[in-house]
């Protein structure tokens, strides 16, 4: 078979499983492009035949030069750069694959991509990605049977495996914690019983509810950004409830809510937290945040007064969690300019994955269905994946492998649709699901 030249931009944790999958076919010639060539070389060294180049994504000329020499570009760099990559791909008539949501800046290239005859496939990781595949599958099956989707609930979480959930958040950070924390104050919007429900960011954690998937897991879920476009995207105008959300272990939302109440998600610059400022202890930072001038005062009482949680058992759990993080201690903080970033430094230090610890992915769709004859049923689609100790994480595999599968299918001419697209039709999705199942990534479907 003729060589297929694939450019992969980025060398993050998802890149490994993606390159591993693609490098199984000798005709796939993979170039890894990073701003710092050492990063690209480190990844390329793990796969025979892969090579490394330096690409500066802030420089159009650098992108053009790299894109023009390949048949397809995988963009695993931060989403703000995708539109620049697509612009270059349109110019040189090359295909693109990303795992990110289609942004307006990316969609703006739809017509040009169609005229250039290229495929720009997006949203093909886990969430978005595998979630779309199995949502569209069931919705299509129900519609073909003449049925209706009354309600669609979908929750997904990337978590530590149960045995690694050993900290007050039941959560671990495998990369920057900043994005994770900022997402906790996003506004959310969804349909519930025919009404549009808006949750303002500061109330998002209060909106979390217990979620029962398997009895051995204590999950809570809260809505993730705007679910309302899925009425149209998934073609379910009949649905009265549409919620896409995030899963966390029990206790996470209330602990985070307390941190929010105290002011830890404040990202405004504080002179005294600048890296070059004088050393300062966690205890005095905490005192300042809650407005207590004397750091030797009873900070616990002041925190109780400040947080919205009123249940005494919960308050004790939260205070113990804060102690676990050393927030009452005389240890010096790692100053990063803002309260948010200074907290992040501590979270990343204390809540990182240890050697040999596994992560876990849980995804479940729950459909309330009414069949043509009026019968009601509940259908579920469930994915539970564990990472490999000292190997690829479940998150890296479930994002990187669907992405790699889409790349192969485009280059094989199986995925033919042109323009800026996402996995929203059975024609696009069926071959991807078939390949995923061969990889052992199996979504279990049930009718109750
Ligand atoms: C904290 O910083 C102060 C002032 O620089 C220093 O004297 C003290 O030893 C530091 N404490 C720790 C535990 O490192």
UniProtKB/TrEMBL annotation:
Annotated Saccharopine dehydrogenase NADP binding domain residues: 6-121
Catalyses which reaction(s): L-saccharopine + NADP(+) + H2O = (S)-2-amino-6-oxohexanoate + L-glutamate + NADPH + H(+)
Keywords, in A-Z order: Amino-acid biosynthesis, Lysine biosynthesis, NADP, Oxidoreductase
GO cellular component: cytoplasm
Record-level GO BP terms: lysine biosynthetic process via aminoadipic acid
Pfam families reported in the protein's UniProt record: Sacchrp_dh_C, Sacchrp_dh_NADP
Limits of the Saccharopine dehydrogenase-like C-terminal domain: 125-441
Top EC class for this record: oxidoreductase
InterPro entries documented for this protein: AASS, NAD(P)-bd_dom_sf, Sacchrp_dh-like_C, Sacchrp_dh_NADP-bd
Molecular function as annotated in GO: saccharopine dehydrogenase (NADP+, L-glutamate-forming) activity
Highest taxon of source: Eukaryota
Pathway: Amino-acid biosynthesis; L-lysine biosynthesis via AAA pathway; L-lysine from L-alpha-aminoadipate (fungal route): step 2/3
Gene3D superfamilies (UniProt xref): Dihydrodipicolinate Reductase, domain 2, Domain 3, Saccharopine reductase, NAD(P)-binding Rossmann-like Domain
Coiled-coil features, chain-numbered ranges: none
Assigned EC number: 1.5.1.10
Similarity comment: family membership: Belongs to the saccharopine dehydrogenase family.
Entry protein name: Saccharopine dehydrogenase [NADP(+), L-glutamate-forming]
